[in-house]
């Protein structure tokens, strides 16, 4: 009884209390009146106690109705849902409860109300999620090799010479605000002023794998010359040798002068390219997403200078508190 009170289990406490009262000579009618239940209920509890002992005083959760789908059918249904609506004959890329219910009825001759379908999907291990784009031209085998072999080899080289591994990328930010979901009063659509002008800001960035430190630089344009200038800035900042992960942007292939500089500074910096069409393998992509969320989403800027000031404020905040960027590199540290 004390255990029931400690566990805040009212139902078990009621049963134990009734049993104890009757064992001590009390009547079932009196126990029922005190506990607010029918005397027949107390009689049922006492009978169960005498038949099965103390375990009978712990109520079990009533079992739900048996599933109308076999386990094999449930497993097959999960595979069908994973394959997508289009593969199941629907003219859509988005599953809805009604569509899943229709699939179950047509395939297994079992009718579920569409309002129950979400509960069934949760039991199968599904949840509502926003998909992430995957470039169809990407070589998935090359991406797997890069994750399993290339990246570990680069990390090993960096560790051997106590170097630093950086992920490099570029981002453009227009003067017009980027729009994003936000809370707003029902029936009143939020509006964000815009000047209808691009006036793009161009930013180079590099994110360190070991401590999530950010290096950034504004530039007027992305080309081989400005990319080389950013490389020189990185070498000047880091005393350790840099192992720089870059994508396959055309301006990353520096000219004759840039190649000569890289050869002359081979002991200070190495460039390593990602597989083609693989932005998801570049850790700094997450930094640009965080920047837009904090600096440009739903914000009106009266001038490029005002926008650039907001970007610099955000970048400096990242530099002061690099722990906010740790999630961007976490998956590449393992």
Task: Please tell me about this protein's structure.
This protein is α/β, with parallel strands linked by helices. The chain has three domains: about 55 residues; about 55 residues, no CATH class; about 180 residues, Ribonuclease H-like superfamily/Ribonuclease H (Nucleotidyltransferase, domain 5, 2-Layer Sandwich). Helix content is about 45%, strand content about 10%. The protein has 13 helices and five strands. A five-stranded mixed beta sheet has the order 3-2-1-4-5, with helices on both faces. α3 packs across α4. It is elongated and about 100 Å long. The two termini are about 50 Å apart. The N terminus is likely disordered.
Record keyword descriptors for this entry.
single chain; 334 residues; alpha/beta; Nucleotidyltransferase, domain 5; 3 domains; five-stranded mixed beta sheet; 10% strand; elongated; disordered N terminus
């Amino acid at each position: 009884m004390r255990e029931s009170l400690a566990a805040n289990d009212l139902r078990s406490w009621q049963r134990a209390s009734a049993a104890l009262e009757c064992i001590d000579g009390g009547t079932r009618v009196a126990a029922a009146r005190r506990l607010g239940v029918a005397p027949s209920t107390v009689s049922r509890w006492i009978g169960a106690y005498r038949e099965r002992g103390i375990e009978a005083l712990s109520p079990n959760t009533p079992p739900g109705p048996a599933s109308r789908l076999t386990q094999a059918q449930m497993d097959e249904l999960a595979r069908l849902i994973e394959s997508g609506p289009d593969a199941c004959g629907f003219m859509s890329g988005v599953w809805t409860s009604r569509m899943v219910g229709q699939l179950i009825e047509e395939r297994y001759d079992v009718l579920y109300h569409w309002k129950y379908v979400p509960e069934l999907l949760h039991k199968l291990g599904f949840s509502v999620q926003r998909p992430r784009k995957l470039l169809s031209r990407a070589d998935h085998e090359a991406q797997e090799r890069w994750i399993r072999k290339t990246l570990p080899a680069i990390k090993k080289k960096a560790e051997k010479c106590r170097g630093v591994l950086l992920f490099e990328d570029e981002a453009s930010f227009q003067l017009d605000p980027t729009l994003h979901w936000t809370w707003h009063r029902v029936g009143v659509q939020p509006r964000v002023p815009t000047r209808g002008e691009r006036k793009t800001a161009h930013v180079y960035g590099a994110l360190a794998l070991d401590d999530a430190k950010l290096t950034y630089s504004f530039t007027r344009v992305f080309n081989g010359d400005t990319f080389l200038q950013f490389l020189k800035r990185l070498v000047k900042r880091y005393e350790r040798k840099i192992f720089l992960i870059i994508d396959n942007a055309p301006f990353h292939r520096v000219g004759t002068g840039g190649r000569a500089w890289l050869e002359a500074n081979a002991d200070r910096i190495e460039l390593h390219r990602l597989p083609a069409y693989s932005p998801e393998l570049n850790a700094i992509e997450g930094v640009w997403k965080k920047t837009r969320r904090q600096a440009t989403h739903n914000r009106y800027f009266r001038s490029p200078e005002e926008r650039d000031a907001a970007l610099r404020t955000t970048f400096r905040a990242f530099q002061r508190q690099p722990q906010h960027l740790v999630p961007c590199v976490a998956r590449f540290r393992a």
